[in-house]
Amino acid sequence: IWRCWVLYGGDVKIVAVPSLCLITETSAFICASRACLSYIFSTYASQAVWTLVYYSMTMVTNSLCTFLLLFRIVRVRGVGAGIKTYRGIIEILIESAAMYTIIYTALLVVY
User: Fold this and answer.
1) d(C-alpha 109, C-alpha 111), whole Å
2) What is the pLDDT of residue 41?
3) Which of 75, 83, 29, 73 minimizes the C-alpha distance to 51?
4) What is the rounded distance in angstroms from the CA atom of residue 68 to the CA atom of residue 18?
5) What is the pLDDT of residue 110?
6) Which of 37, 62, 70, 95 is the most exposed, fewest CB within 10 Å of its CB?
7) Helix (H), strand (E), coil (C) string for the chain
8) Whole-angstrom distance, CA of residue 45 vs CA of residue 26
């Protein structure tokens, strides 16, 4: 979210949705932690549901920020400037943190 904020020049409209996703993600983490720690009122199903919601919201937040970063990088550099080469594609993947999103998607599929 911070990188989106910086790349878009502090535009609040750009980081509003990722920030709401982060708030939802934090709430899901608190509920998942509470479900894991309270043995009396907790069932395995509630733990699994809150954990899945947490992982899903983390993936949504990361995917959204990655898309915003990728869009800004391509828009600033231009479509033809560097995307046609393998080095340009690798630079864009690293700068936009797309690898983290891809790995987190794989983790969610395995979970």
Assistant:
1) 6
2) 59
3) 29
4) 10
5) 83
6) 37
7) CHHHHHHCCCCHHHHHHHHHHHHHHHHHHHHHHHHHHCCCCCCHHHHHHHHHHHHHHHHHHHHHHHHHHHHHHHHHHCCCCCCCCHHHHHHHHHHCCHHHHHHHHHHHHHC
8) 20
pTM reported for the whole predicted model: 0.74
Between CA 66 and CA 71 the distance in angstroms is: 8
d(CA 33, CA 15): 27
Amino acid at 108: L
- Distance (Å, whole) CA 97 – CA 65: 9
CA 60 to chain centre: 5
